[in-house]
Amino acid sequence: MEPKIVGTVMPVLELNMQPNDKVFAESGQLSSMSMAIQMQTEYLAKAG
User: Fold this and answer.
1) pLDDT tens profile 19-43
2) CA Rg value for the chain
3) Is 42 exposed, middle or buried (0-12, 13-18, 19+ CB in 10 A)?
4) C-alpha 1, offset from chain centre
5) CB proximity list for 16: less than 8 A, separation 6 or greater
6) Is 16 in contact with 2 (CB distance < 8 Å)?
């Protein structure tokens, strides 16, 4: 994975990913992705 920060006023983290690379993000934090990316969501309940 090759991370790159682009922009100054509203910087964006751009990731150049290889097959089988994974990114974990909170809901609503992924702004865009290419058509080659497959998204999978999971609900993780917190105990307590």
Assistant:
1) 888 888 887 777 888 888 888 887 7
2) 13
3) exposed
4) 12
5) 1, 2, 4
6) yes
